[in-house]
Each structure stands twice: as C-alpha cells, then as structure tokens.
Amino acid sequence: MTTAMLTPGVAALWLFGTFFLLMVLRVPVAFALGLASLPVLFIEPRLSPMVIFNTTFKAYNSFILLAVPFFLLTANLMNVGGITDRLVTLSRTMVGNFPGALAQINVLLSVFFAGISGSSTADAASQGKIFIEAQVKEGYDLSFSIAITAVSAVLAVIIPPSILMVVWGGVLQVSIGALYLAGILPGLLIGLAQMATVHVYAKLRNYPTYRRATIKEFLTAAAISVPALFTPFIIVGGILLGWFTATESAAVAVLYAGVLSFFFYKEMDGPKLWHALLETGKLSAIALFCVGTASVFGWLLAYYQIPKALLANVTSWGLGPIGVGFFIVFVFLVVGCFLDAIPAIIIVGTTLQPLADSVGMHPVSFAIISIVALAFGLVTPPYGLCLMISCAIAKVRLRYALKDTMIMLVPMLLVLGAMIIWPRIPLLLPELIRPEFLK
Amino acid sequence: MRKFIDGYARLLNWLLGASVAILVVPVTLQMIARQTGLIPAWIWTEEMARFFFIWMVMFGAMIGVREGTHFDVDVWPELKPRTNAVLRIVSMVFVLVFALVFVWYGYRFLQFGWAQTSELADLPMGWIFAAWPLTGLTWFLFGFQRLRRDLRIAIDGPGPGDEMDARGQIGTGSVV
C-alpha cells in the first residue's frame, strides 16, 4: 500500500479521465467504470485485472443487496395486482376537493406508494402511465404533469422502505432500522412541500378540482386499502422488533404483495406474475451489475487514498457541521446529475464519510441528507431517471419539462436545507422510538 | 445463427425470471426456520440465496447488452439516426473490450474457482465463477449482432423498424 507506483493525483487522473471520456462516448456507465479501472490495473505492478473479479464477486455476493430485486418485485406486483388502483381511489377521496385535485392525488399516491415500495423508478413508471395523460385531458399543462409525476416519485427512496437506505446501511455500516425511521419525517415534509407547490400552480393556472368526497366514500376506500397500507408497518415494524433483517423484510413485502394481489384483490394471474418477475430481473440486474464495477472503481480510489487527497483541501477550510452539510449535499447533487444513486453511494459516500465524521455529524443525519440529495438527482439532467421515464411516457424530450421540474425542486431544496440546519428533523423519530439505534 | 441467438436469448430470459422467483425461497425458509422452528435452520439457505443472486445479476447483465438497456449518460444534442448509429458502434467496441477482459481473465478466475469450495455448502466455486467468462462470451454474441445492425444503419441509413430502439427510447437502467 505504501509503495504504490502511481501517486494519488496521477491515479485519479487516469481513473476519472478515462471514465468521463468513455461516458461522453455513451459507453454505458457500468462498462465505463470497469474500463476506467483497466489502465491503472495494468500500470500498477502490484495489481492485475484479477482485482475486477475479486471485487465484483465480493460486491454481488452480498445478502443485503438481495433486497433490491425484492423491493422492485413488490412494486411490480402492486402495479399488476391492483393494489395501486385501490390507493388511487383512496387518495381521491382524501384530496379530491383541493385545487389541482388530480396533481394532489398524484403526490399523495406517491407518499402511499413510497411506504410500500422502495423504488422511485417503479413509482415514476407506474404513475406516469396513470396520471400524465389523465391530467392533460383535464386541462393541466403537459410539462407540469410530467414534472410533478417525476418529482413526487423521488419520495419512494426517502420514505421507508428504500433501496438507497438498504445500500447505504450495507456499504457504510449504519443501522437500516435507524435510517428507515429517520427518513419518515423528511419524506413527509417534502411531500407537503410538493402539495403546497401544486396548490400555488393550481391557483395561478385555475386547474380543476373534484367535488368533496363524503365521509362514507372515504371510509369505504380506506377499508379496501387497509391491507395494502399495512405493508410499511410490517416492514419497518418487523425490523424494529428484530423479527427480520432488511433483506428478509423485503422478501416479506414480496410475499405480502403477492398474497394481496392473488387472494384479496384477485387481479393476479400467471402471465402477469411472469411479466413482473422478468421486468424485476432485468431492471435490478442492470443496476446491480453497475454496483460491481463501481466497487472496483471505488476500491482503486481507496487503494491510492484518493479521497484523502481530495478532501485535504476541504478540511483546511475549517467548515462547521452546517457548512460541511451543505458541502456534502452540493457534491451529491452534482454527482447525482451524472451517476446513478447506488454507485454514487459506493464511490462518493465512502469518500465523504471521514469529512462528516471530522465535524461530528451524526452518521444517520449524514446518510439522510445524502440520500435526499441523491434522490433529487433522479430528476436532474442529463441523467435524471425519474424525469427521463416521465418524459418517455409523454413522448417528449427531457428539456421539455425541465423548467417546471426546476421550479418544483426549489421548495424541496428548502426542506433539505432545513434538515442540514436542524439535524433534529431526521433524528427526531429514531430518538423517540429507538434511541439505541443511534448509538 | 440468428435463430440460435434468439433461442439463446429466450433461454436467458427464462433463467432470469426463474432466478428472481427462486431467490424468494431460501430467504423465506430462513425466516420460517428462525421464527417458528417448524423446519430446521439450514445454514446454507443464506449462501444459496447469494449464489442465485450472483447468477441473476449476470443473466441480466447479458440480456442488457442485447436489449441495449445498460444505462448511459447523454450529453449530446439531438443527433441524426446515422450519427447515433456511429456513436453506438464506438460505445459497443468499448463494451466488447470489457467483454474480452471478462473472457480472458475470467477463464483464469474460473480455474481458481475449481480449486475452492464454498464456506457453507461445500460447493465448488467454479459453479459460481463460471458466470464471468460466460457473461463475456455472451456479450460478444449479442454485441456483434447489434454491431452488424448499427453498421448497416450507419452506411445505408435507418430502415423500417430500426427507429424502434434507436436512441430516445429510455434505457430503464436503475431500480432506485
């Protein structure tokens, strides 16, 4: 380790230089990360390309990452099994009389969906199909409809369960139960900020509303949805009570969603199930493959102690916890524009951890502000997946909905800023419910 | 040849879907064993889940090259179909370089594997490590098929049906 041939600076130049060059040439990110590691592996006499195999094997040989396909399968089962439809009805009886009713339903459904699924892209894909066309038909602007679908979808990784929290907990050794509890309040606040944004839009542009639902209609819709709404309590509660691990809780969610759609809502059949399984496999495998090559890249960064060199400057600025918080969020927002959130956690999260530790930032609060910033990266171009999916469903180019998306991001960024200034926002619930998780 | 590749892709699809379904089994068994004691707590369930998971990731990575769904970042303005095809050719050449690494060094990795057995179930690790060279070979197979099509588009321009999966359709590359 002490006698590496390349200096951190030269190694960083090779790694990042090759990576960005390949990325511009549209080489898929997973391959660009792996290929960018090759020159260094050949140059450094102590290393060989066998590092790629050992490191990817270690990355995939992980019980924690198993939660990724499970969470995605849960979301897919919900969509084909009729659970999502019930939640739409429930949302309508709750916020249908607000100005901009359909857009408010869009946000509220994302909150419910987030509590069951941990995948924002699954949320954007399913709600894009439900809402975008319907909203335009009722007189909403298309760019507004795309933007609100995309920004509300990011709630899925902030409100537990969350794929990002599982990965963060696994990679950086933080209690996933604590992260789940810490994500609830920020997620609800961001949801409220989005509903306020919709309200202002609706008032300015005279978006339509529905008649107020009767108490009876609400109670009927709620009764039908109760079994589905029970899912987050099973997942989070089961982890808190120590019944099962994060991965096992994801498997429980799969079984529960399967049972509900087969036996309770009775909308599932063989072909639908097979479709859900195959889609889950394709999506999760592609993302997870990238986790492997990102791990190789991250391993080399650590080998040359590049994070230390990069952060040497920042440490000398003498920032306090709030300054460091804003710096971390800034880095994740920029990185999130170009990189998928999971490799970003592996590469950047581990890089910034010493910095967060150095100012005494709580690991849980470091995790939550980073995850929220990365979640916002899902709607920022050029690589904002939720926005890409919503635009693809509406068959327009990404730029079309950019302005409205950026406007909607402002109140969300304010919530994020508040979380940095008052770390109690994320830490409050874990302190109340499970203080021992924060130790 | 085309028929063979299509059949092989169908088989991979089937294996991928099946491995997702199978993954749920050992994890469920593990929970039932711990919570109820109705079945013995087999220690290999966790290892079995991890090994199926590795194969699932690799099957999906193979199919991703065939379907062009490995996600990329687009920093270019709107391009003509032929320019897009040229860019896809360039990027595929790099993918194939990585495939070569997977085949060449993956074969050595596989040889190490036959000398090792897994910690819990005593399984030869070759059964797991084989996924890497196989993935590399499969990328070549699917990659050349796409290269041929993109070369034709670059030279003759897009024919009917080519625009379907030209750039612009999203690569659904993330689960987050």
Q: What's the short version?
A:
The complex is a heterodimer of chains A (439) and B (176). With 439 residues, chain A is mainly α. Helix content of chain A is 76%, strand content 0%.
Describe the structure.
The complex is a heterodimer of chains A (439) and B (176). Chain A has 439 residues and is mainly α. Chain A has 21 helices and no strands. Chain A has helices at residues 8-24, 29-43, 50-60, 67-80, 83-95, 101-116, 120-137, 142-153, 163-172, 176-205, 215-229, 231-240, 246-264, 270-303, 306-316, 321-338, 341-358, 363-376, 385-394, 402-421, 424-433. Chain A is globular and about 75 Å long. Chain B is built from five helices and no strands. Chain B has helices spanning 2-36, 44-67, 81-114, 126-129, 131-156. At the A-B interface, helix 1, helix 2, helix 3, helix 4 and helix 7 of A face helix 1, helix 2 and helix 3 of B.
Total helices of chain A: the number is 21
The class by helix and strand makeup of chain A works out as mainly alpha
| Strand segment tally of chain B | 0
**Percent helix among the residues of chain B?**
55-70%
User: Which term fits the overall shape of chain A?
Assistant: globular
State the largest interface: A-B, 78 and 63 residues
Give the overall shape of chain B.
Answer: elongated
Oligomer: heterodimer
- State the helical fraction of chain A: over 70%
Low-confidence stretches of chain A: none
How far from one another are the termini of chain A? 32 Å
Sheet having the most strands of chain A: none
N- to C-terminal separation of chain B? 37 Å
Q: Into which percentage range does the β-strand content of chain B fall? A: under 5%
Keywords:
heterodimer; A: mainly alpha; globular; B: 176 residues; mainly alpha
